[in-house]
Amino acid sequence: MNVSVLLTALKSICVYRDVCRLPVFREIENFLGALAGEDWDRAVESYSELYYLLCSEGCRSVGEWLDRRLRYSEAPYPHLAENDDSDQALESAARRDVEIFSALAGLSGEQLLSLLGDLMPPEHRRALSDLPVWKGDVPFDFESLTASYRECGTGLFAQYRAFIWERGNLLPIRDPDVPKEGDLIGYDRQRAAVVDNTRALLRGFPVNNVLLYGDSGTGKSATVKSLLSVPDFQELRIVELQKENLKDMSQLIRLLRPHRQKFILFIDDLSFDKDDQTYSLLKTILEGGLEKHPSNMAIYATSNRRQLMRQTFSDRQGDEVDASETVQEKTALSDRFGLRVSFLSLNKEEFLELVDALAAREGISLPREELHKMAVQWELRHPGRTPRAARQFLASLV
Question: For position 1, what pLDDT does the model report?
Answer without folding.
Answer: 65
